[in-house]
Specification:
Layout: E1 2-6, E2 20-22, H1 33-36, E3 41-43, H2 51-80, H3 86-117, E4 119-127, H4 138-144, H5 148-162, E5 167-171, H6 188-205, E6 214-216, H7 222-231, H8 265-277, H9 286-294, E7 305-307, H10 310-313, H11 315-326, E8 331-334, H12 347-355, E9 358-361, E10 372-374, E11 393-397, H13 417-430, H14 433-437, E12 439-442, H15 452-459, E13 464-466, H16 472-477, E14 479-484, H17 490-496, E15 501-504, H18 517-525, E16 529-530, H19 533-543, H20 547-551, H21 554-567, H22 574-587, H23 600-605
Parallel strand pairs: 1-2, 1-4, 2-3, 4-5, 6-7, 7-8, 8-9, 9-10, 11-12, 11-14, 12-13, 14-15, 15-16
Helix pairs in contact: 2-3, 3-5, 3-11, 3-12, 9-11, 13-19, 18-21
């Protein structure tokens, strides 16, 4: 039977008068169930449900990323009349190149799987009156690749150029990407604070020196960061990010392909689409980017550059830092959240370590990687000041991943979120009714198109939901027990705050690296960590009436403290730890940087 291919949730590409194939669950928005449930439809299985293949693809794509980066270094130098090093381009375009290639490979594989397994009668391709969607910069790309319109565009390019599937082209209004779902309004207090900070920054900036250490978005507490400036012998600064100038797409500058050896048809596709999708900041707007850098009041020859956030989406910073690194300034990156050091694979972690001369972690180190330096949490949380055993609520903290895959790391991806949600429902269903009544489910914001609240209300109409906009600290103050369901920052913070914590997740999605397994085994032995929702729920029911007796027991506290020392250490002297690490880097600025490194699990498998 022939089936008509549907690639996204954009309904102008759907047909009601023929059997259809949905390329993935991302096509079927829960809020549109009345529409898609009436179709004669099949959903293509998600290719990365095979996790062995997922990790094999990760290793392949990391190596392909390296080959592309080397090829692009020469081409971009020639296009722009510059002579920058591989490390410079890794710092500037490395995040985008890695993200784009991994996202493209996922879209490519889904299309090829559909073509090989089904007899496809055709597909509808929507085009915009305003031309193709091309990101201006990395921050813009981070918004676009979550949107149906941008993804539909990539599927269309693959289908037209690399398959024989008949494509029906239609011009569609409103094909531009939607607003940033994660954007939040700025309050009047925030505006006043920003005005005061900007005023101080202008004054302090006039007193900065060319050799001052440059600190931007370090994630340290404000007071500690100001003290660190003074310890380093310089006037405390409040440097702030600068947005890249927006530059229009010029098709005449995009008539090229990435040169190099093609080892598969996918590589041919990637080398063809990179020039079509590379952000304008790296191509048409590169000259403007250099002009922005030339106009900055930042130090000209910083003895050190440290950030915990700006290395990915801040293109002005990256271009500036790339130049300074070439001139000898060491680059330090600080860990800015969870999953680092724990997950089996993570492109963000691998990239951050590869570009840095020193990588500051919350406690973990990495065999064979001397640039990774444990210092403990950079912004340890303040105690909440409550007796959790006396509180009445249980807090279940959930996540909503994007409907289509994002840059690769060991996590629930794309349609696997439906399995994740089923696990959450099983957990709640297994709880006794009185604990269900005491439960608050914190939804993830933004929603990512999963319609979380509607799904929960259908399954448990009386369940108390938090829309994800309350502060996690406020919710924890009301919690007798904190239940974490995914491998990120959340449970590291609750454990560090001594909030009684139960963790559960699917180990086939949230895979652990070899070095982390013993620590989680210890948590498993004392029932802090669980691999099934039923096990976690039964434990919650068993301890609910006296959580403190369980949490404060010697066995639990011993395992938790050992875990904290490794993954969320609370140093007595965080400022001393950071200062010592930075001074060591400044004393030897020739270490590390610019080489491909992968996590210990992958080194072992290689």
């Amino acid at each position: 039977m022939k089936r008509f291919l549907i690639t996204t949730a954009l309904e102008p590409t759907w047909r009601d008068d023929a059997p259809v194939l949905f390329l993935g669950e991302w096509c079927r928005r829960y809020s549109r169930k009345h529409r898609w449930s009436a179709l004669d439809a099949v959903v293509l299985p998600y290719h990365w449900d095979d996790r062995t293949q997922f990790h094999a693809d990760y290793k392949y794509l990391r190596l392909f990323h390296e080959r592309l980066l080397q090829d692009l270094t020469g081409q971009l130098n020639q296009l722009h009349g510059v002579d920058h090093s591989l490390r410079y381009w890794r710092i500037l375009i490395g995040p985008w190149l890695g993200y784009f290639v991994q996202v493209l490979f996922d879209r490519w594989t889904s299309v090829q799987q559909a073509v090989s397994q089904f007899d496809l009668s055709g597909t509808i391709v929507l085009t915009s009156q305003n031309g193709p969607l091309v990101p201006n910069d990395m921050e813009d790309f981070n918004r676009l690749y979550l949107e149906d319109a941008w993804n539909h565009q990539q599927y269309a390019s693959i289908l037209r150029r690399f398959t024989a599937v008949p494509c029906i082209t239609r011009v569609q209004r409103g094909m531009d990407a939607g607003p940033n779902e994660g954007a939040t309004a700025v309050t009047w207090k925030q505006r006043i604070k920003r005005t005061l900070v900007a005023g101080y920054g202008r004054v302090a900036g006039t007193l900065s020196r060319d050799r001052d250490a440059f600190l931007l978005s370090t994630r340290m507490w404000f007071r500690d960061e100001m003290a660190l400036h003074r310890r380093l012998g310089q006037i405390p600064q409040m440097w702030r990010s600068v947005a890249p100038v927006r530059v229009a797409v010029d098709d005449s500058q995009r008539q090229w392909v990435v040169t190099g050896e093609d080892r598969s048809e996918f590589e041919t596709c990637a080398r063809a689409l990179i020039p079509q999708q590379i952000p304008t900041a790296y191509l048409e707007g590169y000259g403007r980017l250099l002009q922005q850098i030339g106009g900055l009041s930042w130090p000209r020859r910083p003895k050190l550059i440290w950030t915990s956030m700006a290395f990915s989406a801040d293109d002005v910073f990256k271009a500036w830092a790339g130049e300074k690194v070439e001139q000898g300034s060491p680059l330090v990156i600080g860990q800015h959240g969870g999953h680092y050091g724990v997950g089996r694979c993570s492109f963000p972690e691998d990239h951050e370590i590869a570009i840095s001369d020193c990588y500051l972690t919350w406690g973990w180190d990495q065999k064979g990687q001397p640039t990774v330096k444990p210092v403990g949490q950079l912004n340890p949380q303040r105690p909440l000041g409550v007796r959790h055993g006396e509180q009445s609520r249980a807090l279940l903290v959930t996540v909503a991943v994007p409907r289509q895959s994002v840059p690769m790391f060991s996590a629930t991806m794309s349609s696997q979120w439906l399995d994740y949600f089923s696990d959450q429902c099983e957990f709640v269903e297994t709880l006794p009714g009185r604990i269900q009544d005491a439960l608050t489910v914190r939804l993830h914001a933004p929603d990512r198109g999963w319609d979380q609240a509607a799904r929960w209300h259908e399954c448990f109409p009386g369940l108390r939901l938090d829309d994800g906009h309350s502060t996690i600290a406020d919710l924890m103050r009301q919690a007798r027990l904190y239940i974490a369901t995914y491998n990120a920052t959340t449970y590291l913070e609750s454990i560090a705050l001594d909030v009684p914590t139960v963790i559960f997740w699917n180990p086939h999605h949230w895979e652990l690296r070899d070095s982390a397994i013993p620590y989680f085994d210890d948590l498993k032995h004392v029932a802090v960590f669980h691999e099934t929702p039923g096990s976690a729920a039964r434990h919650v029911a068993a301890i609910w009436d006296d959580v403190d007796a369980w949490w404060t027991s010697p066995a639990v506290q011993g395992a938790v403290k050992q875990f904290m020392e490794r993954y969320c250490r609370l140093p007595d002297d965080p400022l001393d730890q950071v200062e010592a690490a930075l001074r060591a880097v400044m004393a030897d600025s020739q270490i590390g940087g610019g080489t491909l490194e992968v996590t210990d699990a992958y080194q072992a498998e290689a």
